[in-house]
Design brief:
Layout (H helix, E strand, L loop, with lengths): L1 H18 L12 E10 L1 H6 L9 E10 L14 E7 L7 E6 L9 H10 L11 H10 L4 H8 L12 E2 L4 E4 L5 E10 L8 H6 L4 H10 L4 E9 L19 E12 L21 E3 L3 H17 L10
Antiparallel strand pairs: 1-2, 1-9, 2-3, 3-4, 5-7, 6-7, 6-10, 7-8, 8-9
Helix pairs in contact: 1-3, 1-8
Length: about 325
C-alpha cells in the first residue's frame, strides 16, 4: 500500500507540474461541470447483479462532465478525452461510482508506466518542448499505448458532451442473488447518437462551446444515456485496461441515465466530491487491474491537495 500511495502522490505532483497548479481543481479533468439526474436499471441488470444501484428503483445521480486535461481554461476544441463520471446514491446508502471516458482503453498497464509517460511529456526549460526522442523510445517499448493514443488524437472534437460514447477500461465482477459472477465492462451510449465536428468548426465556436452547448441543451430537454454491460468472453483480459474487448461481445442494456440539469459546484466550504471507480456497493467486485487500484490512491491524494491539506493515507 505504501508503494501505491507514493506512486499516486507522484502522479498528482507530476500532473500539477505538467498542467500547472490550479487552486481547488483536479490534477486531471480540471475543466468540468456538475449535473443532477436519475438512473433506473433494467430487469436484465437486476438479474445479473444484486447491488442496490441495479435494483430497478429510480436512483438519484450526481454527474460530472469534463475535458481530460489538467487546465481549467482549456479550449474545448482540443483533441483530448472527455469524461463522464456518475455517482449513484440509492436510498440504501450503498453508493456506486461509474467513471468513463471517450477513449475505449487506458494508455498503459501500470501506474509506474503512466507516471513515466507524464514525466516524459514535461517540456524542456530551454526549448519549451518535450524530448521527442525519449518519448518516442518509450512509446516504442509500450505498443499497448497506441490504441488509446490513436483513439484520442485521431478523433475530431465533439459536437456535444451529449453525443459521445463513454467507456470504462476496467473490468468488474457482478454477483447475482445466488453469488454467480459475471465479468463485464461499462459503457454509456448516447440516446442522441454520436456526432463530432471538424477542428476548424469547433475552434470557431469559442473555447467554452461544449459547456455552453450543454447548458442550452439541458434548457430544452434532459440528456439521456443508456448504460451497457459488455460481457467478457472466455479469453478476454480482465486485468489489462489497455486491451479492448472484441466488438462481437454481448452488450446488455442495463439502465437509463437521465441528466436533468446543471447544479452549482458542490465543492465549497471544505467539501469535496470524489468520483472513484473502486467505490462499489455490495454485489460488485473489483478486478486486480493495477491502474484501477491506483486511481483510488491518486484521487485521494488529489482531494487532499484541493482541500489545501497535506496528503494523508488512502482511507479504507
Amino acid at each position: 500500500m505504501a508503494a501505491l500511495e507514493s506512486t499516486a502522490n507522484q502522479l498528482v505532483e507530476v500532473a500539477n507540474s505538467l498542467f500547472g497548479v490550479h487552486d481547488g481543481r483536479r490534477a486531471l479533468h480540471a475543466k468540468g461541470t456538475f449535473c443532477e439526474g436519475t438512473f433506473t436499471a433494467t430487469p436484465a441488470a437486476a438479474k445479473l447483479c444484486r447491488a442496490a444501484i441495479f435494483a430497478g428503483d429510480e436512483v438519484p445521480a450526481l454527474i460530472r462532465l469534463s475535458n481530460g486535461g489538467g487546465k481549467p481554461d482549456s479550449n474545448d476544441a482540443a483533441r483530448e478525452a472527455r469524461g463522464l463520471a456518475v455517482k449513484l446514491r440509492p436510498s440504501s446508502g450503498e453508493e456506486g461510482d461509474i467513471l468513463a471516458t471517450t477513449t475505449p482503453a487506458f494508455v498503459l498497464r501500470t501506474p509506474e508506466d503512466f507516471l513515466e509517460l507524464l514525466r516524459l511529456r514535461m517540456p524542456d526549460p530551454e526549448t519549451g518542448e518535450p524530448d521527442m526522442t525519449a518519448l518516442g523510445e518509450f512509446l516504442g517499448k509500450h505498443p499497448e499505448a497506441q490504441t488509446a493514443l490513436a483513439a484520442t488524437m485521431g478523433a475530431e472534437p465533439p459536437a456535444s458532451f451529449a453525443t459521445l460514447q463513454y467507456f470504462s477500461p476496467h473490468s468488474f465482477r457482478l454477483l447475482d442473488a445466488d453469488d454467480n459472477g459475471t465479468w463485464l465492462r461499462y459503457r454509456w451510449r448516447p440516446e442522441a447518437g454520436e456526432h463530432r465536428i471538424p477542428d476548424d468548426e469547433a475552434k470557431s465556436k469559442g473555447r467554452n462551446y461544449l459547456f455552453e452547448e450543454l447548458e442550452a441543451r439541458l434548457g430544452e430537454a434532459p440528456i439521456v444515456f443508456a448504460l451497457l454491460f459488455q460481457l467478457a468472453g472466455e479469453d478476454d483480459p480482465i486485468d489489462d485496461p489497455t486491451a479492448v474487448w472484441p466488438d462481437e461481445r454481448e452488450l446488455v442494456e442495463a439502465g437509463r441515465l437521465e441528466i436533468t440539469g446543471l447544479v452549482d459546484d458542490p465543492e465549497e466550504d471544505g467539501h469535496i466530491e470524489v468520483f472513484d471507480p473502486t467505490r462499489v456497493p455490495g454485489g460488485i467486485e473489483l478486478s486486480d487491474d493495477p491502474i484501477l487500484h491506483a486511481r483510488r490512491a491518486a484521487y485521494s491524494a488529489s482531494a487532499y491537495k484541493r482541500l489545501g491539506m497535506e496528503i494523508g493515507p488512502v482511507p479504507e
